[in-house]
């Protein structure tokens, strides 16, 4: 069977170059100085402005939909949006290009449309009647035809739209060209009716098209935004305006709730799902969900604060890197940082499911540099403490501290909170036992000597003690003889000889295995011999200046294959990877450990935790 007509986009392979299709319109607008009032091509500027606003409408609804800190209780489909769905909807705006070309063609074919008045209030009434009398019933009939009993149209065309498991505003754009040609034609009917009646206007075109897009995005946003009290006060309104719950039922059930925006036509066609109103009332009231595991992160810097699903979902689904398109957003993000410093509290960023259990990522509203301000220490600890107490009250089983949230100088690796609240039911975990295990298992078997910086830190201590028991010579870079000797005395007497204090980087000029727990400048890296591999647990990771050496990334593990709803990358890690301390908390939960993992790392548990991670399907990055 050949390919179905208009079942795929002709510019599918162009990637970002598809936006060149706007080029003729942009070029014509610039050439004719369309921004000037006297320009005959001012209509082009208005057309481009309209389609920019259309794209913004869907983006704003997407941002709202992904604000889990504000919307999680009213989500209709409770699953997270995974990478597969995000990739499928990556080119959601294809239909905007198509509609722009259709609109430009219409304006060229009918020159009188280019000279509409700015305002004519009569056109709004005509368009409203035409929408209810023509656009709504024809959309309903077309939609039912796509779900027809033969299944051929559904398989060839409409199944793509229903392939997204969780409705999202961008899901509204996931459809074939044929469907969007039909949608564009149906959208034009009320505007054409107003033109035929002699009362069309630029304001009507903008208002109708943007209202149409907003309703489509709302219906797919997966968050119940229509208060049930509105339908209780005006019962008939439930047949005039659909809701996200109403449309979500169509996406899950498929044989009911076909209307465009007005359930009246489902009532007339006998296709209303009778659960719609009860379910809408329940979703409007909100449904509590308690995570079993929480990873308590913090913001790295102003740029990284934009790497979250509720800012740009597609960007958050790729490893973080500074991009040029972020620069115009920096001033706004900086103001948000200041506001968060004053008013914000810990909030939910994203979630995923693992083996039927909800895992959430929360963020302390503090940025990396703030952790090094002496006067900010108490405030940060208070934020972390409140998050732990909130998790405890909710019934969270395990809370894992990320990065600087478990800084030894800040709170003793979480010890502060456990000692202050001895009756905590939630298990507080720093996850560094697994971090140490990941680093140690990256070191090739047979290695006889390593050079260790950050040697007296929590992780450095554990790595040194573990390796010396394996008869690996560890050159511990530290100026503090007292701290070195304290760690050396922890090792069994027969292994203490393998721990050696060094105070200069030149001491490692013949060692090809460097374990970096403290920032290295280019000058310090020069002491490493060619072929050296730099293992890292320093945050942020060192910059790879040496082309004749290799650089490992921060310790990370890949989540099990049965993870569901994971759609955001953790900082600069690849999809599906999480930092080892995050993975350590997951293992703590999956194993059902009842102890807190805070303070110093128990070296004897490194292999135990590593084996447990592998048993549960986590894999090294």
TrEMBL record:
Task: Report how it sits in the membrane.
Answer: Multi-pass membrane protein
EC number(s) per UniProt? Answer: 4.1.99.5
Q: Which GO terms describe its biological process?
A: lipid biosynthetic process; response to stress
* Residue span, Very-long-chain aldehyde decarbonylase CER1-like C-terminal domain: 450-620
Q: Which major enzyme category is it?
A: lyase
Recorded GO MF terms: aldehyde oxygenase (deformylating) activity; iron ion binding; oxidoreductase activity
**Is Membrane included in the keywords of this UniProt record?**
yes
Task: Family membership, please give it.
Answer: Belongs to the sterol desaturase family.
Q: What is this protein called?
A: aldehyde oxygenase (deformylating)
Species per Swiss-Prot/TrEMBL record: Zea mays (Maize)
User: Which lineage ranks, top first, belong to the organism behind this chain?
Assistant: Eukaryota, Viridiplantae, Streptophyta, Embryophyta, Tracheophyta
């Amino acid at each position: 069977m050949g390919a179905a007509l208009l079942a795929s986009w002709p510019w599918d392979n162009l990637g970002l170059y598809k936006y060149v299709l706007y080029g003729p319109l942009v070029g014509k607008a610039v050439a004719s100085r369309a921004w000037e009032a006297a320009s005959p091509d001012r209509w082009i500027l208005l057309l481009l402005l309209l389609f920019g606003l259309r794209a913004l409408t869907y983006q704003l609804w997407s941002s709202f939909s992904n604000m889990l800190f504000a919307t999680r209780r009213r989500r209709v489909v409770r699953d997270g949006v995974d990478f597969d769905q995000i990739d499928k909807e990556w080119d959601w705006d294809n239909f905007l290009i198509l509609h722009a070309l259709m609109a430009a063609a219409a304006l060229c074919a009918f020159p009188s449309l280019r000279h509409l008045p700015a305002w004519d209030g009569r056109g709004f009434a005509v368009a409203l009647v035409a929408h209810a009398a023509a656009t709504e019933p024809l959309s309903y009939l077309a939609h039912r035809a796509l779900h027809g009993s033969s299944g051929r149209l559904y398989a060839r065309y409409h199944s793509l739209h229903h392939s997204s498991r969780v409705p999202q505003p961008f899901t509204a754009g996931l459809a074939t060209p044929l469907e969007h040609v039909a949608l564009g034609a149906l959208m034009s009917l009320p505007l054409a009716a107003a033109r035929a009646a002699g009362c069309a206007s630029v304001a009507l075109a903008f208002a109708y098209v943007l209202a149409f897009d907003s309703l489509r995005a709302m219906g797919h946003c997966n968050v119940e935004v229509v208060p049930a009290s509105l339908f209780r006060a005006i019962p008939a309104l439930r047949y005039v305006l659909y809701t996200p719950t109403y449309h979500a039922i169509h996406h899950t059930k498929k044989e009911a709730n076909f209307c465009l925006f007005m359930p009246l036509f489902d009532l007339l066609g006998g296709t209303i799902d009778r659960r719609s109103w009860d379910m809408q009332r329940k979703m409007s009231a909100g449904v509590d969900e308690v995570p079993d595991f929480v990873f308590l992160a913090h913001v790295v810097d102003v740029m990284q604060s934009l790497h979250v699903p509720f800012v740009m979902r597609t960007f958050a689904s790729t490893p973080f890197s500074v991009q040029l398109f972020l620069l115009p957003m920096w001033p706004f993000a900086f103001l948000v940082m200041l506001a968060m410093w004053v008013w914000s509290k810990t909030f939910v960023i994203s979630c995923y499911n693992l083996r039927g259990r909800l895992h959430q990522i929360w963020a302390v509203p503090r940025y990396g540099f703030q952790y090094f301000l002496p006067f900010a220490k108490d405030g940060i600890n208070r934020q972390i403490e409140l998050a732990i107490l909130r998790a405890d009250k909710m019934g969270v089983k395990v809370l894992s501290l990320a990065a600087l949230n478990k800084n030894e100088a800040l709170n003793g690796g979480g010890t502060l909170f456990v000692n202050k609240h001895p009756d905590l039911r939630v298990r507080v975990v720093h996850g560094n036992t697994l971090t140490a295990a990941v680093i140690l298992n990256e070191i090739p078997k047979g290695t006889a000597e390593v050079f260790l910086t950050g040697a007296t830190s929590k992780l450095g201590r554990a790595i040194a003690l573990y390796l010396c028991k394996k008869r690996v010579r560890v050159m511990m870079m530290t100026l503090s003889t007292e701290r070195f000797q304290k760690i050396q005395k922890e090792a069994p007497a027969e292994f203490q000889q393998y721990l050696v204090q060094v105070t200069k980087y030149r001491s490692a000029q013949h060692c090809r295995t460097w374990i970096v727990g403290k920032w290295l400048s280019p000058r310090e890296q020069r002491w490493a011999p060619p072929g050296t591999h730099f293992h890292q647990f320093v945050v942020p990771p060192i910059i790879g200046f040496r082309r004749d050496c290799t650089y490992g990334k921060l310790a990370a593990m890949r989540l099990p294959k049965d993870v569901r709803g994971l759609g955001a990358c953790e900082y600069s890690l690849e999809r599906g990877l999480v930092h080892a301390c995050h993975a350590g908390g997951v293992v703590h939960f999956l194993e059902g450990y009842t102890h807190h993992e805070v303070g110093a790392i128990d070296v004897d548990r490194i292999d135990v935790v590593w084996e447990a991670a592998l048993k549960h399907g986590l894999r090294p990055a």
